[in-house]
Write a structure and sequence with these properties.
202 residues, alpha/beta, Rossmann fold, 50% helix
Amino acid sequence: MTLKLAVLGDSIAWGQGASREQDRLAPRLVEGLARHGFDAPFRVFAVPGARSTGLGPQVESCLRWGPDLAVVVIGANDLTHLEPLGRAVEALAGAVRRLRAADAQVVVAPAPDLSAVPHVPAFLRDAVRAAGEELRSRQAAVVRIERGLVADEDQRASRAFATDRSLFSSDRFHPSSAGYAVIADSLLPAVLHGARAAQAAA
């Protein structure tokens, strides 16, 4: 089946840090979908540096294209910029709601565990981890309410980044090409779930 895949969100959704364009998140997801019989032309609407409150314009552009499946990766910049959690979560809920109202299946990858980032001081890691856990929990709750799917709920990707520094790019914050392979693999089960739901609804 052919389905149109849209990728929205922040620099991770965009693919910053990958050494080659084909190593970015969207092409990796397309490869994974192809292994399961889905042909997925894609467009990336993500903007590096985006916070949840910046999803609105991305959704507008995305809806004009008419995706069957939308993957949203968001939350890291909400944490780094100390965005009020209520505002961030409300903005994410609104984005998922609009996409679902347009009959797109939606998969959300919540905020990563930023305590794994190498330059986070050891004495701050517990606080950074706790802030991420609270945001992820609230993100997951509203995504489900709005009939979306939550990806990588067991934080497999974040655990991998915490133990393998090669998954970070040279800036020690964004993923490397190898890191994007790990992220795509962790998101793929939920993305396949969304693809199959889109197939069933077609």
